[in-house]
């Protein structure tokens, strides 16, 4: 803390000297900026009542203001992007200007309107270059207007779903998870400046209500120096605020749909020039809360409730106080397979999440801003077994863990001439507590003996046989490690008189960071440079200096931006179940007790990332943004899942090599039509050895292999049309996924060893015969057409873990929505109606199958949703 206090004092002194002690209008720090302007007539007199519009045609963000008696106007809480600002007033010519907000430092503008009776005009003619961003980092901007119309499967994971559907290079995974640019959920969410790098899928945490989000910027290129930890994607979220509200505003909506899914959500904002508050509340109850391992939904009920409040206070023109508070709770069943349902399995999970994040911002002049912030956040997760432990198959599992993340950060932003610089430091302290129990309940899962020499028929009715050396005396054949036998599991096999494995652990993870960065703009050239330092101390330790550099160049005549960037990155292990995952190997519980190959606690990793891309505008009707990335990582991270549960453990691989492209085609609003297409390809190659985790689902590949984050191609296209004269709107979304790697079925012979339930899940067939729950396929004559409907099984002898792995079959999913934003054409209170249909064709498809890292999950069947709401 002494180091941080010294940094704060030094920054304050420097800023006072630089600014000369001048003060201007304050702005809450974070991921937003502000605009303050003065409008005068040719004589210099103030122009009150002038209308001001701030608009970004690509993201869809739009805000309006009116000048006061002194001719002043303000836009607060504006996401960092380029904008077109237009000023209109009767009797004067329209004035406009391009405004580029790239810092929390308020932008000061002055306008002199020209009388409309003269021949002069100060209107800036827009060109194709006005909708481009001259930055070195690829990113996607999403405004709340898109969030309101994009069909979302589950409100409990709406934020993740929005990123998956609107950002290029993101592969969809089950339960609202996603794989950004070849990694497993390697994402940092930055909420009003607060970094959250812990997992945000609904099986780990409770997400921020979507109604709380004003704007979202998803950075997929090389990140700036201020961002560390999980950086394959950085999602910068600007929340909604009541500050500056002329009158109270809010909304209330209720939704009902398939699987008995009901949702209610509402907002309320109010305030003035100095004080503002915004509140968002939501709740949902569903019969299909998680994605189940069967197309038929069984034991999948769940509900979630969440609230978010943002309070803003400006005690003076130089100071701002900002406070975010959120609370979330969710409870849900673990979906069953048909076999588990027949056994009466009843596993459940509950998650509590709270977050408190205060901050203070001080302006030292027209171009410098100091932001000091703290935060405390906790996820408390409980996983509960069935009342009858033997109803849990093939094992009974219980968990109670707690992840508490606290931190303090300070940053100083300065805009001076051609420079836009930022300096900062942070301290984070994460407290981890884990309690975990497990016991095997299926005698065939880890059999000690077999009744045949081929080791295909396990002996399940001899509980006294607990060592392979006993098998011969009983006229049986011993199981062997080469056949997958894990002797360390026998003491925890409840079918053989064992007892529950019990683990309790606690640790602290500390991380210190400091950075400096600058954006230098010289004409049409923008240069970005930075340096970051991280020091990590947990179960393992490490530190790293990380240079960042980038360049972009705007060719205004052709509407083109060219860019290059490089980043050295320091990757830290996932915190969820980190203690047990790091304790399963040598020096811990004993080598390979659970099948994992842990050797040491999980170590930090280092990555070199290169990006090259361009942005091209075609008039004002189309923007193409393309980026290619190369990532070389030493020690890369992932998760492994226990069976089909929501209990996961972090693991790490020796190294990875990932490359791929991401493209976004955007059609800004034109005569009511808006559209975009995002495309991505990823080649994600990982290298052994693996370290950490509890491995149960399938054998791990040896050598180089394609991990289940690897997908050859995916795309999302969204088109919406707003009928004129306050008419209804229509929206259509098409999602195509070529299929993630599914390594558990390398050939047809392996498929024949699956259970009837598993064969039916993948649609296994031989000739015209399909596997069913009561009739598995046990043999298929040579030459007979064979395969699976939902898994692409390589032809015999062709499977290669790197060049030809098994994959999920490609799928096309179509969603449609229709709505009316103002049913009764009223001015103050507006009633809204929306009807959505997701998976129009009722496509039966998988996200993954028997994945060591994800389990088995089906895409949702056809889902109908209807929402009625009001806003004021």
Keywords:
single chain; 872 residues; mainly beta; 22-stranded antiparallel beta barrel; 5-stranded mixed sheet; 46 strands; 6% helix; 50% strand
Structural class: mainly beta
Q: In angstroms, what is the radius of gyration? A: 29 Å
Note the total helix count. 7
Main pleated sheet: 22 strands, antiparallel, barrel
Taking all residues together, what is the mean pLDDT?
90
Give the strand content: over 45%
What's the total count of β strands?
46
Low-confidence segments, given as residue ranges, are: 1-24, 119-126
**General form:** globular
Helix content: under 10%
Q: What is the CA-CA span between the terminal residues?
A: 46 Å
Secondary structure elements and their pairing?
Blueprint lengths: L1 H18 L12 E9 L10 E5 L6 E5 L5 E8 L2 E7 L6 E6 L6 E6 L26 E5 H4 L10 H9 L3 E3 L5 E3 L6 E5 L2 E3 L16 E7 L13 E7 L9 E9 L3 E11 L3 E12 L15 E15 L2 E15 L4 H6 L4 E18 L2 E17 L10 E22 L2 E22 L8 E2 L26 E2 L22 E22 L2 E13 L3 E15 L4 E12 L6 H4 L23 E14 L3 E20 L6 E23 L2 E19 L12 E3 L7 E9 L6 E9 L10 H5 L3 H7 L1 E3 L2 E2 L15 E3 L2 E2 L14 E2 L2 E10 L9 E9 L7 E6 L3 E4 L4 E9 L1
Parallel strand pairs: 1-7, 11-14
Antiparallel strand pairs: 1-4, 2-3, 2-5, 5-6, 8-13, 9-10, 11-12, 13-14, 15-16, 15-46, 16-17, 17-18, 18-19, 19-20, 20-21, 21-22, 22-23, 23-26, 24-25, 26-27, 27-28, 28-29, 29-30, 30-31, 31-32, 32-33, 33-34, 33-35, 35-36, 36-42, 37-38, 37-39, 40-41, 42-43, 43-46, 44-45
């Amino acid at each position: 803390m002494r180091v941080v206090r010294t940094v704060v004092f030094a920054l304050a002194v420097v800023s006072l000297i630089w600014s000369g002690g001048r003060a201007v209008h304050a702005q809450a720090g974070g991921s937003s900026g502000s605009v303050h302007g003065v409008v005068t007539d040719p004589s210099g007199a103030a122009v009150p009542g002038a209308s001001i519009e701030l608009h970004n045609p690509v993201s869809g963000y739009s805000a309006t203001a009116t000048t006061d008696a002194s001719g002043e106007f303000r836009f607060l809480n504006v996401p960092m992007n380029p904008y077109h600002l237009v000023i209109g007033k009767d009797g004067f010519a329209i004035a406009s200007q391009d405004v580029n907000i790239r810092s929390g430092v308020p932008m000061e503008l002055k306008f002199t309107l020209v009388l409309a009776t003269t021949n002069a005009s100060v209107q800036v003619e827009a060109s194709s270059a006005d909708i481009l961003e001259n930055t070195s980092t690829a990113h996607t901007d999403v405004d709340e207007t898109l969030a309101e119309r994009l069909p979302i499967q589950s409100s409990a994971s709406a934020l993740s779903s929005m990123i998956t559907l609107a950002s290029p290079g993101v592969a969809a995974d089950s339960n609202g998870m996603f794989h950004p640019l070849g990694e497993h959920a390697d994402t940092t969410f930055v909420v009003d400046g607060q970094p959250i790098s812990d997992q945000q899928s609904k099986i780990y945490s409770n997400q921020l209500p979507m109604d709380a989000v004003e704007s979202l910027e998803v950075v997929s290129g090389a990140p700036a120096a201020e961002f560390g930890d999980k950086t394959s994607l950085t999602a910068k979220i600007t929340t909604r605020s009541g500050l500056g509200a002329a009158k109270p505003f809010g909304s209330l909506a209720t939704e009902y749909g398939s699987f008995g899914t009901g949702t209610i959500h509402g907002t309320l904002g109010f305030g003035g020039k100095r004080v503002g508050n915004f509140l968002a509340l939501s709740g949902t109850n569903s019969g299909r809360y998680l994605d189940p391992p069967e197309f038929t939904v069984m034991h999948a009920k769940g509900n979630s409730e969440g609230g978010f409040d943002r309070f803003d206070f400006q005690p003076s023109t130089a100071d701002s106080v900002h406070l975010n508070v959120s609370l979330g709770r969710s409870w849900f069943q673990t979906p069953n397979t048909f076999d588990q349902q027949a056994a009466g399995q009843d596993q459940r999970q509950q998650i509590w999440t709270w977050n408190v994040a205060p901050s203070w911002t001080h302006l030292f002049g027209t171009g410098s801003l100091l932001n000091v912030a703290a935060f405390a956040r906790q996820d408390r997760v409980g996983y509960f077994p069935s009342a009858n432990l033997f109803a849990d198959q093939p094992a009974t599992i219980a968990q109670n863990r707690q992840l508490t993340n606290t931190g303090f950060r300070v940053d100083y932003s300065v805009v001076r001439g051609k420079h836009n610089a930022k300096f900062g430091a942070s301290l984070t302290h994460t407290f981890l507590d884990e309690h975990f129990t497990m016991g095997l309940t299926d005698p065939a899962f880890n059999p000690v003996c077999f009744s045949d020499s081929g080791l295909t028929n396990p002996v399940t009715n001899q509980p006294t046989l607990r060592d392979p050396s006993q098998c011969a005396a009983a006229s049986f054949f011993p199981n062997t490690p080469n056949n997958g036998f894990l002797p360390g599991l026998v003491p925890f096999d409840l079918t053989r008189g064992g007892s529950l494995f019990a683990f309790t652990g606690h640790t602290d993870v500390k991380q210190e960071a400091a950075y400096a960065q600058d954006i230098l703009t010289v004409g049409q050239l923008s240069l970005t440079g930075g340096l970051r330092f991280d020091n990590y101390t947990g179960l393992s330790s490490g530190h790293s200096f990380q240079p960042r550099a980038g360049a972009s160049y705007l060719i205004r005549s052709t509407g083109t931006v060219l860019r290059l960037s490089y980043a050295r990155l320091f990757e830290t292990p996932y915190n969820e179940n980190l203690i047990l995952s790091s304790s399963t190997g040598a020096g811990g519980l004993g080598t390979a007790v659970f099948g994992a190959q842990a050797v040491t606690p999980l170590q930090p990793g280092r990555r070199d990332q290169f990006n090259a891309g361009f942005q091209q505008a075609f008039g004002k009707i189309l923007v193409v943004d393309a980026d290619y990335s190369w990532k070389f990582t030493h020690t890369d991270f992932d998760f492994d899942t226990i069976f089909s549960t929501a209990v996961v453990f972090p693991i790490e691989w020796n190294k990875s090599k990932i490359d791929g492209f991401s493209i976004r085609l955007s059609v800004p609003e034109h005569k009511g039509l808006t559209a975009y297409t995002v495309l991505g390809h990823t080649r994600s190659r990982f290298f052994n050895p693996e370290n950490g985790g509890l491995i149960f689902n399938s054998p791990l590949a040896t050598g180089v292999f394609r991990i289940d984050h690897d997908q050859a191609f995916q795309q999302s296209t969204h088109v919406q049309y707003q009928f004129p004269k306050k008419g209804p709107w229509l929206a259509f979304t098409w999602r195509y996924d070529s299929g993630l790697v599914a390594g558990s079925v390398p050939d047809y012979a392996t498929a024949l060893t699956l259970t009837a339930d598993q064969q039916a899940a993948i649609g296994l067939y031989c000739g015209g015969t399909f596997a069913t729950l009561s009739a598995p396929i046990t043999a298929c004559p040579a030459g007979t057409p064979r395969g699976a409907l939902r898994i692409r099984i390589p032809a015999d002898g062709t499977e290669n873990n790197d060049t030809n792995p098994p994959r999920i079959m490609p799928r096309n999913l179509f969603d449609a929505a229709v709505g009316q934003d103002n049913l009764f054409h009223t001015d103050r209170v507006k009633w809204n109606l929306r009807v959505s249909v997701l998976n129009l064709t009722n496509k039966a498809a998988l996200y993954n199958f028997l994945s060591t890292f994800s389990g088995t999950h089906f895409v949702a069947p056809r889902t109908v949703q209807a929402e009625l709401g009001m806003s004021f």
